[in-house]
Amino acid sequence: MMMHDGWSSGWTMWGMWLAMIAFWLVPLVVVVGIFWLILGRDRKRGERPADPVDFDENRRALAILKERYARGEISRDEYERIKDDILSS
């Protein structure tokens, strides 16, 4: 009878190569996926200005605009026009 060693068929060697590739590829895909999710979430927030100071100024301006509209100092059309101007800057 012949003894059969596991390396003679060649398939075991291919299996080890595939396991080694998967060992490095799976964590790489996970890390890239996490970065993609983080960057994708930032892209969805495109309406927010990049500069936090601008964002705070826009939020403050909108709050003042809402107060003026609530007090009746400006009309609905003026409110919408000014709001669009603030959000586009």
TrEMBL record:
Protein keywords: Membrane, Transmembrane, Transmembrane helix
Annotated InterPro entries: SHOCT
UniProt superkingdom: Bacteria
Ranges where the SHOCT domain occurs: 61-87
Transmembrane segments: 12-39
Any Pfam family the entry gives: SHOCT
Record's protein name: SHOCT domain-containing protein
